[in-house]
Amino acid sequence: MSTQRSTVSARKPLSENDPSRTSTTPTGAPQSWMELHEPRVLFILTCVAMVVSFIGCAEVKIWFMEAAPVLVAIPFLLLRYRKFRLTPLLYRLMFLHSLILLGGAHYTYAKVPIGFWFQRMFNLKRNHYDRLGHFAQGFVPAILAREVLIRKEAVRKGAWLNGIVICICAACSAYYEIVEWWTAASGADDSGDFMGSQGDIYDAQWDMFLCVVGACCSLVFLSEKHDEQLAKIKRNEKF
């Protein structure tokens, strides 16, 4: 009898308030609290960062031009959240990238304080914060492009996938340089803060080169972790 009672007790369901209880995806697969709520937390933090970045920004017009990728991405991600939820790695990377973009939007890239700090420390000729921004322009979108291509089964994993991802990042960077040139040529960037070349005649080439370097580094160092999270998403979809 005691054995039967212990067995029944062991089978007692978890209470609704038990912290160890997990939620489920729409497909029924179990999800931890972090997996379920982390994207929402990052969304709230990004919105807070946008507000802080906008308050007291150097120039409102430049802020909107520099923060445009964040302003466009957030509504799109919200609309696709339930139908095409991304990996936690990608959400975290996009959050960090948004902070870099919003920092540049607040001060303008040529005047970000941490860039001046590095300039003094290493005796550099210019503020290199924009170089960080363009490295991230390849580092983060590489994982985004990789995830979409893999999950939509557009390209198989391997050399072709990596090559196409790098080409996508390079194309996006080149397009961004064309936008900068167009704003300068049209007079929309009369202060030169959006282009932010700081007198470097090879600024556009450096920007595109660093974007490609960022994409390559992302593929080398994050592909394995990314594959693990993609496999988990695939299991959840089949649950």
Please give a handful of descriptors for the protein shown.
239 residues; mainly alpha; two-stranded antiparallel sheet; 2 strands
Provide the fold topology.
Layout: H1 2-10, E1 23-24, E2 30-31, H2 33-54, H3 60-80, H4 88-107, H5 113-121, H6 129-151, H7 159-186, H8 203-238
Antiparallel strand pairs: 1-2
Helix pairs in contact: 2-3, 2-4, 3-4, 4-6, 6-7, 6-8, 7-8
Q: Could you tell me the number of beta strands?
A: 2
Distance between the termini: 38 Å
Strand content: under 5%
The stretches of 5 or more residues where confidence is low (pLDDT under 50) are 6-17
Largest sheet report? 2 strands, antiparallel
Oligomer: single chain
Q: Which whole number gives the mean pLDDT?
A: 87
Strand order of the largest sheet: 1-2
Element-level helix/strand string: HEEHHHHHHH
Helix/sheet category: mainly alpha
Rg, please? 22 Å
Shape: globular
Helix content: over 70%
